[in-house]
Specification:
This protein is α+β, with helices and mostly antiparallel strands. The protein has one domain: Aminopeptidase, CATH 3.40.630.30. It contains six helices and seven strands. The protein has a seven-stranded mixed sheet, with helices on both faces. A hairpin with a 2-residue loop joins strand 3 and strand 4. The radius of gyration is 15 Å and the shape is globular.
Length: 164
Amino acid sequence: MIRECQSGEVKEIYAIINEAAKAYEGVIPADRYHQPYMPMAELKREMKQMTFFGEEINGELVGVMGFQPVRDITLIRHAYVLPQWQRQGIGSRLLGYLEQLVATPRLLVGTWAEARWAIAFYQKHGFHLLPDKDELLRTYWNIPQRQVETSVVLGVDIKKETKE
């Protein structure tokens, strides 16, 4: 079941993000990787800026994905699935659910350039690498310059059905 996460679930969201982000160790630049990957204070700040949605299976939150409208686009933020639940369609279901909520013409996601599995996941779902990633990262995200240098942005145009 996919549902909006509640502020009282911050510990569960924290655990999912930090457990899944261990996959970045030795992959992304060493100066960008630390444990916990997302400290609790940072997560609480992020939760004030976006809405997290999650998939719950047998009463357990097993994957999360953040959703953040910013001006004329919507961002997918902090998409993570617990390692033992990966490759079971949870990320795909969350992404599909959030795509239905998008009210802007474009959906963007940023990820680490070396996170090949994440790039492949989004490409499988119709996203394309965008050449103007530095400008996009500076415009729609609030991240350090070093992260801009080591990240990519993928996007997809959202086509809404019109009733005639």
